[in-house]
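Help!! Second protein's tokens look totally different from the first
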Amino acid sequence: MEPAPGAAENAKLRHVEKDVLIPQIMRDRAKELCSDKVQAFTKCCQETGVLMVVKCRQENAALKDCLVGYYSDPSFYEECKAEYLKQREEYRATGIKKKRQKFTHNV
């Protein structure tokens, strides 16, 4: 049984996809998954104003640890890559680009 035409082509990623588009999905999803730490850091910054550099170190470190944990996880990268490939396949089939959902707690 032969693979579908273009199947090998669909698995290949361009540099912009590897270096920009998939990492963007990773950042968005990591922010969602670390939303409690994002909220804590945002709240601290809003409350302290100019002194946030000194006063919010603990919140910033917790946020950074959470985000870096996801960024450095190979299985998380593969999940985001699969999500991107699915979106790309849908776009190529329909020609309709789906809008990315923004996840915000800071409103």
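Here's the second one for comparison:
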Amino acid sequence: MKLLLLLLTVTLLLAQVTPVTKCWGKSGRCRTTCKKSEVYYILCKTEAKCCVDPKYVPVKSKLTDTNTSLESTSAI
């Protein structure tokens, strides 16, 4: 019974000592180093990396010749 009480106490203390800071709309976690399956896109408030699964990181689309397409739409 004493062992169970000790185990419960240690578990509750560890749960409060190691809070997880979420970032990127709760899709990422603030860490000093990211896991191999994660990438970082921004920094957290604590200057740690916001480690996110790559499928949640936005991809920049390549627009080709945007000036021409804008001129042709304004001529209409």
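Reply: Different proteins will give different token patterns, so don't panic. Strands lie at 22-23, 28-31, 39-43, 49-52.
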